[in-house]
Amino acid sequence: MFQNRINKLKESFENFNIGGIMIASRYNRYYLSGFTGTNAYLVINKERNILITDSRYIEQAKKQCPDYEIVNQGKNFYETLQDIFQQISITEIGFEENYITYRQYYDCEKNMKNIKLIPVRNSVEGIREIKDSEEIRKIKKAAQIADETFSHILSYIKPGIVEKEIALEIDYFMKKLGAAELSFETIVASGERSSMPHGVADSREIKDGDTITLDFGCIYEGYCSDMTRTIFVGKAQEKIQDIYKIVLEAQEAALQMLKPGLVCKDIDEMARKIITRYGYGENFGHGLGHSLGLEIHEEPTLSTKSERILEAGMIVTIEPGIYIEGFGGVRIEDLVLITEEGYENLVKSRKEITVI
């Protein structure tokens, strides 16, 4: 599995005009090697795969990373790095411009002689856009945990409980079902606070007639899920029910479009046109969706500017919303696998208007 990913990275070296690359991002490092420790760099050229770490992780790295030569960084990391570059005859090395700090870059320049550092963007992230079967399995499991949690939380919410209690119960229940951690801080936004797309839980008490937006996800074996449902307590106002129906119509229209070959911005445009037609275009301020995997936000995005073309194996969210300050809001979010034939919705939770 890892060697296949490494080979795809090596195939990109000519495009970046590099003889090898140094990987610093913990997500990219894990994706290419399986290493879960906190300190390591990967050095990869066409012939060799090398993982550099300190003495705390040598044994762990040997067990987790059979596709790599494991090197102890010793007392001076830069001397070790210089020696490796000399051994593998590299004079130009790519580095991840989004993850190397200026200080690290400066230290590399200062301490390593006759090595040209070439900034590279999205060398691994581009490969990560297409999920393999093992990644899909893990994301499906994370989505299943979130689905089961949503079913549970419907029986937990009642007037008098506060948002923070709901969020804590969601977090606890996902972990009880096998989640390692949360994909992001759980969003529970009720009443007029539901107009805030990222309104994390506070001490507001749930009341009859409230709208509640629940946006949450978990990490299972390193991979994220993400879903949003908007529900109502007691009785939903007619206006918010109408808004809910508009958001659902926009979401379903976007879902039905999904297939390989579509430009991402065109899917966003479909949902946005529907919401605009009903007079709420100004109340839908974010993009229609994003990809996820090892990180909660990955490429591609489904936004007004995204020219990326969908491919089978991508996993994206579809999450239109309408938000009215001082009144409330609605968002409905599913997690979708792009297949050769179209799409598979990984979120199974009900989407009809739900009043508890």
Q: Which strand order do you get reading across the main beta sheet? A: 4-3-2-1-5-6
Number of helices: 11
SS elements, strand count? 19
- How big is the Rg? 23 Å
> Could you say how many structural domains there are in total?
2
Helix content: 25-40%
Characterize the biggest β-sheet.
6 strands, mixed
Q: Report the principal-axis shape.
A: elongated
Brief write-up:
With 356 residues, the chain is of the alpha+beta class. It contains eleven helices and 19 strands.
Protein described:
The two termini are 46 Å apart. The chain is elongated, with a radius of gyration of 23 Å. Helix 8 (133-156) crosses helix 9. The chain is an alpha+beta fold. The protein has a 6-stranded mixed sheet with strand order 4-3-2-1-5-6, with helices on both faces. Strands 7-10-11 form a 3-stranded antiparallel sheet. Strands 8-9-12 form a 3-stranded antiparallel sheet, covered by helices on one side. The mean pLDDT is 96. The chain is built from 11 helices and 19 strands. The protein has 2 domains: 2-126, Creatine Amidinohydrolase, Chain A, domain 1 (3-Layer(aba) Sandwich); 133-345, Creatinase/methionine aminopeptidase superfamily (Creatine Amidinohydrolase, Alpha-Beta Complex), CATH 3.90.230. It is 35% helix and 22% strand. It has helices spanning 2-11, 13-16, 26-33, 58-64, 77-87, 102-111, 125-128, 133-156, 163-176, 238-257, 264-277, and strands at residues 20-23, 41-45, 49-53, 69-72, 92-96, 116-120, 181-182, 187-190, 211-216, 218-220, 223-224, 227-232, 289-291, 298-302, 315-318, 321-324, 328-331, 334-338, 343-345.
